Amino acid sequence: MHELPVAVVTGATSGIGRSVVDELKKTHRVYALGRNQRALWELDRHTNVTAVEVDLLDALVGGAESEGLAQLRALPKIDALIHSAGVARHGSLQDAGIELWREMADINVLVPALLTKMLLDRLKAAEGTVVFVNSGASQKPAPGMGVYAATKSALKGLADTFRVEIAGHGVKVTTVSPGPTDTPMQEKLVAERDDTYMPAHYIAPQEVAEAVAVAVRAGSSVQLTDINVRPRIELSDRDD
User: Fold this and answer.
1) CATH number reported for the structural domain that contains residue 126 in this entry
2) For helices 111-126 and 146-165, what crossing angle results, to 10°?
3) Quick one: DSSP state of residue 203?
4) What is the extent of the structural domain holding 14?
């Protein structure tokens, strides 16, 4: 029986990450990373999905022992690594404290950097693809989201640098930057602003997942370096 290519997806238990798992399990053996035990248990029941419970912040930044990371290290090759985990908080540059900076910088930049480094030999072995799920905020920052925008801009620089440094090893690097997407994180941000949440106004997460899949399934002679995914009607252009 032909062996399926292997994909590792972070932030796999909700939002865009969960949709990425649903899309890639059609063609890959997916290792779905997360912390929510109930959601991981449900994912593990799906064909071609292996749930991996791991706190990447504790394991990669804090140095904690992790069976989940050991499971990834045991893989001989990885065809796709998708960084979907991330955190967004309200915080302007002029008001943000060190705790906010550290939380978002660690999760949005340092964790994907360290995980990519840890798995790089396996990606080289497969001539695989790394996809960093970024945000439109890295290109068009919004007031009150300065720290988030800064960390997402750093993530873009991280992806671009990895691409240059590992180009000779056959590894492709893509940044997928969605605009406002219908996820629990987006809903929480809107609630914190005391606004009304209108799911139909936002990008469906499965459509972002399809863009990620396009990058992963691209032919061997090309890499899609940057994919911007925008809502059909920008929020600023809506009158309803």
Assistant:
1) 3.40.50.720
2) 30
3) B
4) 6-228
Return d(Cα 170, Cα 216) in angstroms, integer. 13
Give Cβ neighbours of residue 55 (< 8 Å, ≥ 6 apart): 35, 64, 66
Tokens representing 196? 């009304």
- The span from the first CA to the last CA of the chain, in angstroms, equals 53
Strands of the 29-34 sheet, one edge to the other: 49-53, 29-34, 6-9, 80-83, 129-133, 172-178, 226-229
Number of domains composing the chain:
1
Is residue 104 a contact partner of residue 40, using CB atoms and an 8 Å limit? Answer: no
E strand residue ranges, 1-150: 6-9, 29-34, 49-53, 80-83, 129-133
In angstroms, the CA 183 to CA 140 distance is: 20
Query: What confidence tens digit (pLDDT) does each residue in 88-144 have?
Result: 998 888 999 999 999 999 999 999 999 999 999 999 999 999 999 999 999 888 888
Which residues lie below 8 Å from residue 112, measured CB to CB, with a gap of 6+? Answer: 10, 83, 85, 132, 155, 158
Residue 66 confidence (pLDDT)? 94
Assess contact for 183 and 207: CB atoms under 8 A: no
Q: For residue 172, what are the CA distances in angstroms to 6, 226, 238?
A: 15, 11, 37
Is 235 inside any structural domain?
no
How confident is the model over 34-63, as pLDDT tens digits?
999 999 999 999 999 999 999 999 999 999
* Structural domain contains residue 237: no
pTM: 0.95
